[in-house]
## 1
Amino acid sequence: MTVKISHTPEVQKLFDDACGLSADQGSPRVKALMKRIVNDAAKIIEDLEVTQDEFWFAVDYLNRLGKSYEAGLLVAGLGLEHFLDLLEDAKEARAGLGGGTPRTIEGPLYVAGAPICQGEARMDDGSENGTVMFLKGRVFGADGKPLAGATVDLWHANTKGNYSFFDKSQSEYHLRRRIVTDAEGRYSARTIVPSGYACSVDGPTQEALNLLGRHGHRPAHVHFFLSAPGHSHLTTQINLSHDPYLWDDYAYATRDGLVGEIRFVEDAAAAAARGVEGRFAEVDFDFRLQAAPTPEAEQRSRRPRALQEA
Ligand code: MBD
Ligand code: FE
């Protein structure tokens, strides 16, 4: 057996030093994490016989990934963002908590500060010739009773699968709203049926997916942040039942309990009653929140996002 160079005392001393373990300053937490990362990277390089060309390709890939702001897309595609949900689920189960609407990944396209509406909202600006979608439901608390005054912060893509803010051709906060539930815990929105998202075909995420023999599609979906005093913040999505990618999501966000059954209605009288013309869609979806075990649980993660709120 050949000796593993990465395990020798010389190399361990090198990495300890490089990770600041002999320095007084800096963050102990970051030092511990960095030592593990560098150590594991070295082991991968040695065990898998990573070539010089492969190593420098990876360094250049990271530069390109960051330059195109696609790191959030890649971690979703590699299943790591979903893995964080599995960890949270397991932590809750161990603590005897859980129940309520399942969580699922946020993805990289939330923008803080969407307009606040009471009970109901119109989310699209009328500029797209999409299928009108009426989305409604109720938010229930941990005790199973409707929650008045809960905030339903929702966002979704347009008919091309693009999100406002990131797609500068859309108006400000297009397809993004915060709806405060009414006295019966109800929210309702008039919007347009979103299209599924696809990673940019010439971006670094799709480049990696191609090398893995994978597509970069997500089914049509609507994202939600739900919050209410005394309840745990919930990050989730509803993935729409009609989409062929429903259970073939590149980001692994579709979960049992999070499929939104979409009904397409072709009935002139029903359309007239809704104040629309032609075919439209309906989705009903209720949420159930959990009691917050701690005050921090009421808040969403401090993940850096576009337009942080003051
Ligand atoms: C999306 O719209 C999304 O929701 C995720 C998770 C990843 C990429 C694009
Ligand atoms: Fe999305």
## 2
Amino acid sequence: MSATKRSLYSFTLEELQDHLKENGFAKFAADQVYNWIFKRYTFDMSEWSNVSKKIKDHLTETFDLSLPKIVWNGLSTDGTRKYLLGMGDSNTVEAVAIPAKNKRLTLCISSQVGCAIGCTFCHTGTMGLTRHLTTGEIVGQYLAVTKWLRDKVDAEARLTNIVYMGQGEPLHNFENVKQATRLFLEEQGIALGQRKITLSTSGLVPQIEKLQDFPPVNIAISLHAAHNNIRTELMPINKAYDLQRLFDAIKTIPLKAHRFITYEYIVIADLNDRQEDIDGLCELLDTKVSKVNLIPFNEYPESKFKSPSGAKVEWFQESLINRGYICTTRITKGADILAACGQLKSEHDKLNLWDD
Ligand code: SAH
Ligand code: SF4
């Protein structure tokens, strides 16, 4: 994508209406443009039959119309598909489409190239941060994958859910992620419901305190430990914002009735999978507003931690359920193509192996 021009895929409908009006065009043309892009996923302007040539020329001259390019994709045996997306400046990020029951198809998207937080269990964390993604690049992942699915798999394909759990710390890129989220919710556009979008954060306290200012989507907190010493070992951010500060900030998140905060907890063998970790979680979390999502640690080449046994995870989950929590275990998907949580790293030495 061009660094100089703003992406056309970064405007809310109202902003596009205002823009066209200011430039002497009819406001309603924005509705038509919006419909072609965000409802029909048709990016070839020659097909925009109800949009005038003048407007098309104006948009072409003024904005960046390119989409992230799918440079590689690979299908896991469980149906999960990983996409490597080129951003036009030699940087790539990954997005993962995860199918589930009832036609649910969740897209796990990236918010940054790499990540600055440096969690010691995370493959992305080992990359460091290269740069933030723009709003157009974040929304572009959704658009490019939808178009790919419609062209290659099913003309009616629809990604029904979004999780900000790909590469990057979404709250570190607050403004662009916020604008992208507005676009995902836009009624005359992609029109996902607030509950279909989940933002996962490692616990950037100042940005958590700004969530009043963010569309009310589901929030997941990457907790991973109930004791400061273990959390600091796993997540250097805990040195700056420890559990006390994190939970003080979480209290400021506006929660609509019957909504929960999800706490993600990676279960790592012999590290945070003990009875005292369960006791610690019970002290920290209020059963009425918390859900716990256990993620068995996914190993990747050179990872220094180990996956827990299935029995251990089951015991951990049962124990929390017995103490009154809603607690689920995330089924690992896509591990055979390194598409599972924490395995995303834009590096493809094995490119040819997985090409299909
Ligand atoms: N940066 C954000 C969102 C992206 S990470 C965050 O950390 O919340 C998405 C989820 O994958 C997080 O809960 C993260 O902790 C988890 N994850 C990272 N590495 C993992 C690994 N090796 N095994 C299992 N889960 C992992
Ligand atoms: Fe960044 Fe999340 Fe990975 Fe931590 S777990 S390094 S915050 S992507």
